[in-house]
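Lecture notes, unit on binding sites. The following record was shown on slide 14. It pairs a sequence with glutamic acid.
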Amino acid sequence: MIKTRIAPSPTGDPHVGTAYIALFNYCFAKKHGGKFIVRIEDTDQTRSAPEYEQGIMRALNWLGIKWDEGPDIGGPCGPYRQSERKAIYAEHAQRLLENGTAYRCFCTSDRLDNLRKRQLALKKPSGYDGLCRELSDAEIQEKLDAGLPYTIRLRMPKEGETIIQDRLRGEIRYPNDQLDDQILIKSDGFPTYHLANVVDDHLMEITHVIRAEEWIPSTPKHLILYKSFGWTPPEFCHMPLLRNPDKSKISKRKNPVSLDYYKRAGILPEAMVNFLAMIGYSMSEDKEKFTLDDLLENFDLSRVSLGEPVFNLEKLAWLNGLYIRDLSEDQLYARIMSDVLDEARIRAAIPLIRERITRLDEFVPMTDFFFNGSLEYDHALLIGKGQDVAASREMLLAVTDELDTLKAWDHTSLEATLRAFCERTAYTTKQLFMPLRIAVTGRKASPPLFESMALIGKPMCQARLREATRRLELLLGTPKIEE
Ligand code: GLU
């Protein structure tokens, strides 16, 4: 039975890249009558959050990508959240210690830092020098008795090479002496990505690992892990990364990457699925418009194009337009009422404008920015009090990054975060709040700022803030966007 998976780390808003990889895993499994599972890789405790996990699943549901096993629905190979599987990893690391393919490393972080600095100064490749690789049993026991903390490292072979057989790319070879003795268990007892990923793929009976090409350098380490356990590895298939139109790796600085944004901006899920498939796959007769069912019927992993899939917003809008025109007027009405003019949003806007209108027909012009996508305003208004264009751009970029990590997008959290941001930085609330108001509402006088931002929602506020920094760059005359 074919079994595929996505293994996202819940460390941010649901990413278009996750949907793209999920789509291909889903299609491959379904085409072969197999199963597709969702596993949450949340071993990075500081960056992972349940809100992000829920966001990923909500977004996949929106797109119509269904999973057969996962943290929400369970399944025979659970739990499906790595934070709940710590004992499994510890037990597996123990097996490797016992069969000699892993070893305890007692080196302190100070020693490792110094080692790295020395390697850098001598222009040598960085990596562990193997000091603890050959400790005797007595030496190990002595250190354990002294209560010294340790990590567990994989004993990489020093000779030969490891060959990845990639379903799309053919053979990829790595000389083993270039592979670092990878840490498998950190000194706090948590597993690293490599150990948890391999143990889970094996125990969850994954037959095909279809993931982004950025994981290729990890794959030789994974293959050596499979060998160390005595397991047969799954097949690997590394998909090309999504790109910005300038061919750089897709990044939120250049394109919105949150699926929540596209939903909020009125992209139909069927158009998004079609778009993600179209940019990564060559459909027969170069067809550009096709449904998930068409794709399933035709699916052949070897038709994944190795060329760079460009996340081109104009193409997405064009495709979305085609899907809109496929809807009957009744269907379109229903979508507009549920996705744009939804009752909850209209109701939430009422307390914000109630005190400010004298006629009911003022409601629409006064609240249009709650419902619109892009905004019209004079770019010069984005310049903060006492600032030049460059300083305002810096400020808006900094506040956008600050808000990126805010999980609770309600007016009290927004106010607390933004005031704390001003206290921590040299920006005054006077300098910040006006350009911020212009960026997210497009107007100098609007309903209360934090309440407005809460109602506009995180994905749209973030997209508008990035758009504002882009407009300031145009004023600067040198469009410059950092990675
Ligand atoms: N947790 C990794 C990620 O965030 C999983 C990579 C893989 O598929 O092995 O993408």
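Take-home: Residues 7-9, 41, 197, 211, 215 surround glutamic acid (CB under 6 Å).
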